[in-house]
Amino acid sequence: MTDTTDTAGSSGDPGAGPPAFPQEKAAGCPFDPPPGYRALQAEDPFAPVTLPSGQRARLVTRHGDVRAVLDDPRFSADSSHPDFPRMFPRPVPQVLKGTFPRLDGAEHLRYRRMLARDFTGRRAEELRSRIGQIVDGRLDAMEERGGPLDLMETLAYPVPSTVVCELLGVPAEDSALFESRTQVLINGRSGPEETMRAKDDILRHLEGVVAVKEKAPGDDLISRLLVEQVAPGLLDRAEVAVIAWLLLAAGHHTTATMIGTGTMLLLENPDQLAALRADPALFPGAVDELLRHQTAMQIGMNRIAVADVTLGERTIHAGEGVVCQLATANRDAEVFPDPDRFDVTRSARGQLAFGHGPHQCPGQSLARVELQVTLERLFTRFPGLRLAVPADDVPFWHHLFGIHGVKELPVTW
């Protein structure tokens, strides 16, 4: 085994040393990760980089290495660690600090088990019919309104927002408040006070929902947490609102972005859309290919090594931060031949868009069903669907939070 002579320390001068991360996308290529990552993947799959915070970290870019890091308990997700790799160049409130996505080991598993029943593949399939009804209702509204319109506003955001609200037991009319406050949390431009105010608005509202459910439990996730976890003393009452907030935030923004990006990608690849129309049975596999090709978490998953770890011929030292670049791992040619090609007939089940290991997204089965149902019904209902503006004029998300995809999608038919 060989070790590195340069170390990705916990701090550094962003104007010197390793290249900056994240990198800019190539002009005219909104669907592809920045080309510099591919070079690093070939030359140095654990390359040292300088983050916007001024910290240095290792950028992990190969599929197998990303899987190994995310599955290894010696890499912690605890953002309270003093050397945890931070993306923001200025102090901001850590809205996930102390919540279960930032816990490790048995404590993290304890929370996931509380939620497991509502996020199984079987449960997602049970919801398929209801998701279809929600999608059809939005498509009816689109048809009545007529184009051009913003597909993100009229379909992509309302569908997953409604689904997760129903799953939690949150009134559907509350989704607009959650959406507006979530945008503040994720846009990468909000100041500390604005960020905390948005988080507090969401939590106060959800605390009110929890109070109502305590008096009149229903058949929903919040009610089950109260009955099965809070009542016997296994969970603190205040934690229920926090868990609900985390699921609301995670359950709609990324899925909505993937609906918009997937729609545009199919419109820009008419041969692939034609293949789906000729054989709708391809949609489940096509969704995994979409998730691989258009990984929403473009910046990736950050971890801190809590012990020395040797992967292949590279040793990551305790106290070093790593950034698992999911989008580049999903374009690893050793796993996905001709990786830049979008191919709805490809087997992409090994894609890492939902992460990997103990912290992988618990709602991945639900997200898959939402994408399958929404895209299939959209293109069936509107066979003449097309962009209402030139493709170059479609705005994409660009901010430090790392969500990649369509921000607005003007369409007509």
- The fraction of residues assigned to DSSP E strands is 5-15%
| Overall pLDDT confidence | 88
How many helical stretches? 15
Q: Which structural class matches the secondary elements?
A: alpha+beta
Radius of gyration: 21 Å
| Annotation, overall tally of beta strands | 10
Strand arrangement within the widest β-sheet reads 1-2-8-5-3
Helix content: 40-55%
**Main beta sheet: strand number and arrangement?**
5 strands, mixed
Envelope shape: globular
Key words describing this protein structure:
413 residues, alpha+beta, 5-stranded mixed beta sheet, 3-stranded antiparallel beta sheet, 15 helices, 46% helix, globular, disordered N terminus
Q: Can you tell me about this structure?
A:
Helices cover 46% and strands 8% of the residues. Mean pLDDT is 88; it is low at 1-15 and 92-98. Strands 1-2-8-5-3 form a five-stranded mixed sheet, sandwiched between helices. It has a three-stranded antiparallel sheet with strand order 4-10-9. Strands 6-7 form a two-stranded antiparallel sheet. It is built from 15 helices and ten strands. By secondary structure, it is an alpha+beta fold. Strand 6 and strand 7 (314-316) form a beta hairpin. It has helices at 35-43, 63-70, 105-115, 121-126, 128-145, 151-156, 158-168, 175-186, 192-215, 221-230, 237-267, 270-278, 283-293, 326-329, 364-381; strands spanning 46-50, 56-60, 75-76, 149-150, 301-305, 309-311, 314-316, 321-324, 386-387, 410-412.
